[in-house]
Amino acid sequence: MENKHKIFVAMSGGVDSSVAAHLLKKQGHDVVGVFMKNWTETLSNVEDNPLAESELCPWITDQEDMRKVCNKLHIPFYTFDFEKEYKDRVIEYFYSSYKKGITPNPDIMCNKEIKFNLFLKKCIKLGADYIATGHYAQVRETTVNGNRKFELLKGKDENKDQSYFLCTLNQEQLSKTLFPIGEYKKTEIRKIAKKINLPTHDKKDSQGICFIGEVDLREFLKQRLKENPGKIITTEGELIGDHVGLPFYTIGQRKGINIGGGIPYYVVGKDSKNNQLVVAKGSHDPKLFNKNLSADHVHWVGEKPRFPLKCTAKIRYRQVDQKVTINQLSKNTINAVFDEPQRAITPGQSIVMYEGDILIGSAVIA
User: Fold this and answer.
1) Which of 3.40.190.10, 3.40.50.261, 3.40.50.620, 3.30.1370.60 is the CATH number of 6-217?
2) What is the pLDDT of residues 232-289, one digit of tens each?
3) Percentages (nearest 5) of helix, strand, coil residues in the chain
4) Which long-range contacts (CB under 8 A, 24 or more apart) does 49-54 make?
5) CATH 2.40.40.20, domain 289-365, yes or no
6) pLDDT for 197-217, tens place per residue?
7) How many CA atoms lie within 13 A of 189 on its CB side?
8) Residues 106, 87: contact at Cβ < 8 Å?
9) Which amino acids are annotated catalytic?
């Protein structure tokens, strides 16, 4: 990366992508800032949209902040409109997953379908050598038998590492992607932004669904999914209450079950046939834990490994890496056996596998 390159930076609205653009400019590259317009009031006016007349998606503020940052850095600023594609590929996936009774991960899907697919392809068409994002992750180029290979590594800041959300990236995408802030800690990024007086230096981190923001999940789902009340039973078969509809709950959930008595209950299963929600009484119920899972939609970042594969894995973002043995069940399915029982294994979420700091693959929990 010593030569000068044309690099398009995905400017999401926050301090991380702002500093990513600054670092690349400082290195002497030809940098272009791009804001992706994926979810706006245009869609919020349609009947099935839960964000009508809402300020939960401050895209105009984010866009203007990025314009100010690019002016400060003296780099061009573009806006790409992927609204329709985002609705078709991410929002539809979101609703259909909950309808099936599984819990989707829209951030992973957004990266797979929008940022590292549509955005990447459009930038390359416009003459970019690389794209860059403000993710806390790293790419390392190696050579194996004379061939270039790319490894996806965790970010240096363990508390901010976002490699989990990048688990579907492939060799071609990694060869064209840069993560300029991956070798920094968040505190360092804030200091850099403040030192050069970037408008976003003290802007708080975004939360909630990718590009949508913080929403009341149940209200969001109600826009498309009908309530279908049924009974709540314990793992011992005791009838203890009523639920509003199975799609509105997720495995491991505690809040929002609305069972009185002062005892915490956790969702451990859904009996679709009888329309019953199964809950565990207390956080130590054995039914809340399992050592085994099967997963499909298997993806390997590099070469497919040999099985059985002993590595570590996460079944949710921010989880501490867990020791696991992976076996292949078929071309597109794997079985994972953890050394220790895992709490609330959730269908629809991703199991992401690592060897040390290197992300080697992922699959969707069945």
Assistant:
1) 3.40.50.620
2) 999 999 999 999 999 999 999 999 998 877 889 999 999 999 999 999 999 899 999 9
3) 25, 30, 40
4) 49/223, 50/215, 50/219, 50/220, 50/222, 50/223, 51/212, 51/215
5) no
6) 999 998 888 766 665 666 678
7) 28
8) no
9) 110, 210
